[in-house]
Amino acid sequence: MSNKPKRKAHIISHTHWDREWYLPYEKHHVRLIRLMDVLMDTLENDTEYKSFYLDGQTIILEDYLQVRPEQKERLEKYIREGRIFIGPWYILQDAFLTSGEANIRNMQIGHKDARRYGQISKVGYFPDTFGIVGQAPQLMRQSGIDNALFGRGVKPTGFNNTVADSEYESSFSELIWEGPDGSKVLGILFANWYSNGNEIPTDPEEAKAFWDRKLADAEKYASTPELLFMNGCDHQPIQTDLAEALETARKLYPDTEFVHSNFPQYLESVKGHQENELSVVRGELRSQRTDGWGTLVNTASARVYLKQMNQHGQALLEKVAEPLAAYAHLTGQAYPHHLFTYAWKTLMQNHPHDSICGCSVDEVHREMVTRFAKSRDVAESIIYDSKRAVADAVDTSSFAQYGEDALPFVVFNTTGWERTGTVSVELDVQRIYFRDGIPLDEISRRIQALELGERVVLDPSGKPVPFTLEDLGQRFGYDLPDDRFRQPYMARAVRITLQANAVPAHGLRAYALVSGQAAAQHSDNASVSLITGNNVMENSILRVAAEPNGSLTVTDKRNGREYRDLLVYEDTGDIGNEYMYKQPEGEAPLTTRDLQASIRVVEDTPYRATLEIVHDWEVPASADELLQKEQIEVVYYPERKAQRVKETVPMKIRTLVRLEKDGKGVKVEASFNNQAKDHRVRALFPTDIEASRHRVDSMFEIVTRDNQPAIEWQNPSNAQHQQAFVDVSGETAGLAVANLGLNEYEVLRDGRNTIAVTLLRSVGELGDWGWFPTPEAQCLGEHAVQLEIIPHDGSGEESGAYAEAYQFQIPWTSVQTGIHTGDLSAVHAPFAWSGEGVAFSAWTVNEDSGDHMLRWYNMKQQPASLRLEWPQSVSRAYKTTILEETEGASVEQLSESLELEAGPCEIVTIGIER
After folding, report:
1. Catalytic: which of 18, 55, 94, 128?
2. What pTM does this model have?
């Protein structure tokens, strides 16, 4: 008698719900309403239809109840009964194109929304994510989730086929996934996809053929007799005759137990039968051991404008609005949790993989632009209120000695490190309110007649600060008081540009624009230039020379390392689609290497110098007619034969190259009007550093990746995802290139380890399973991109190069204020921290406790010491999870400081109870 356990077929009903993709949102929305209505009718009328998994995202509940609010009680009933499983996410996000904090907010809000219904599905669900970041196991563990289910990123080999021989292969559909910090979860790979149990036949003959194939396919990879069958697919309607189909299967296969299952039941069964040794997969899952054609990595460069809007929106929320609101909370201002939730939800509605990846029809991405604007408007409103509240608490009374017309203003540094850099601040020199009853023509006369005279900017110690002043003339403005009707006015405005020095991390420094005798007494006429030669800029750290072809030669004066041919532009054809780049066969890239550029100095101040470089370039107008024929016939993109036309169009690129007085990097802003189709534009940065691997910023991790792809890789391109920067380093020198919303790069195998950053990719179709034209994905029109070139000594963490790259992501914040006393000093920060190789990530306020939450992550794979100092006495500091759930007792009862060790690549959240 055999002791072999009876195999069990777990059928889990679900639908993978892309909110928007090949149809606009509302057309998918209508189908969702129909699906949910049928689902609840089926649950009510068929007791054998046990349960349904609602795709891991609670936003589906909002989308449904927006149209069917009368169904809320009914929906809640089935959730509480465990027949509809919801959460843990708010939306199913793309993992590589959304920030770490966005992913944490996604988990926090998903849990919060699910909790209202009495149930949170603790399933790490990534069914169709285009690759998954390496820190996902730690994020799952800190969320109380011990598993991850996913469809991409790992190559299944089958234990009866070949033995897994790399960290990106697995013998079984079950595996152990380990993050860089050592966190481990049970991984479930949808080796036969998340539709392997879809549309199960009720007819015995059809069912026999179906199950013979499906059972064999599942057993090929399963490590236990617990076999998983996903009964659903993209936008899949409910199978209402599932009970009949399973009864047919039971009669056909008496040796198999068929159950209408759910994820908790299935996962528990797998854990209970685990006898085979599972493969251990480590780090990020990017389909490394494949031919490279199906990775979907080039969604990182589809519709680059969306990625730029997302970077700006995320930075405003998590790196400006949240810390400023927390700062204001310390002064007595209420923390606007409700507004943050709304702003984050609106932003995250753009984060699903078919949305932020730019791989949907044009209507979808038009709506995304509106959502980005809506979230940004809320963030800017929070920023405005918060910075004014903090500025009102700053003691600016020392500026009174310079006269009543002294104009104080406050500069905020909301990054996690002390910051020095160039800031522009707009000030109203004079205001006249309409309420004063002065005729409008007289108001205008007085405003325009105002003499600006001699003025100077002073720091809190009274020391003059080099600056430039631009007269903005007369402008209209208005106040919106909380207790009165709107108050319009006319103002005379100026723009002050200066170098803000040593503004403390998450702190502020006050300045004042003064005039008259005070300005004359404190004026500093010393003129210092960073221009040291013909098209050469230089500070104490870097020398930057613009060559005749517009490329840059950058010398790191600290170690003498010279980097040549930086910022050459490259243009190639692209006959792929929104998912994948495909260069025409045999095409040689076009570059600006042999093009003469126009170069001139456009800014020469003591704090910053700027060169303007203009390339008048011509590129092919489009692909030839064969491309559209191949698109309509749905020819697989690697097999396309289209070429580019000989006709050209102008591609004029205007580049501003900036070097600040104390700058550690060279800042670059390029703008161009794209009139070409079916092409890709990149900026090239040869490093000439010998290295077989490079490092790149990802979610809560500096990932190390190989320059050379795996032996299976056939795609000529090896483009990859990045967030803030990519870095090629040797023992004594390194070159990092930071970006704002340019999420695709490649380290070229050209003998120079050139970093290539994609600036624009223009294509004309969605791709995937049909012919979906997307003319707006050609991205015609004006574009502007920003980068920073950061040389260093070979250690990006310890040299501060990575901190510089992170600060590049975050705008300065400033606000005009008055002369007044206050509890905050003119140079102030509410806390200070130190930790070599540690990056600051977030400062928020917990909604339930009112405690302040501070988060860091260790950039290194070795332990790091973290010290936190809080000038004001606090009740206690305690360690929490990313869900802000206390892990045991508090770290320490303390008054002013805390020290702890951050483990390798650990994400550390500290709660501060005041």
Report:
1. 128
2. 0.96
